[in-house]
Amino acid sequence: MATAGLAFACLAPVAADAGGGAGAGAILKDCEADGQIDGTYPPAAYAKALSALPTDLDEYSDCRSLIRSAQLRAAGAATTRGGPSAAGEGNAAAG
């Protein structure tokens, strides 16, 4: 019985990270489910999802390009809501 508890304790952090709500695992599941990114996720989660993209999903689906497109949309949304580039520093349109 103690062995089963130890095995669960060792796997729990992995499962939490993989499914982590609005994390990389959720993005991968979202894309794998229907070939679309339907949810809205934090910008940093997209980079993690691209890094964690399984080989088979990468080779046999459009998930890499879908995740990248969603990542770019999220970055654009962050700048229009007052993110780092909207402050005017290094932004030619802010003049």
Please report the total strand number as a whole number.
0
Q: From the structure provided, what is the oligomeric state, counting identical versus distinct chains? A: single chain
| Straight-line distance between termini | 67 Å
**Which structural class matches the secondary elements?**
mainly alpha
With helices defined by DSSP (H or I, 4 residues minimum), what is the helix count?
Answer: 5
Strand content: under 5%
Low-confidence parts: 1-20, 85-95
- How would you sum up the global shape? elongated
Largest sheet: none
State the share of residues found in helices, binned by percent.
Answer: 55-70%
Radius of gyration: 17 Å
List the helices and strands in order: HHHHH
Q: On the 0-100 scale, what is the average pLDDT?
A: 75
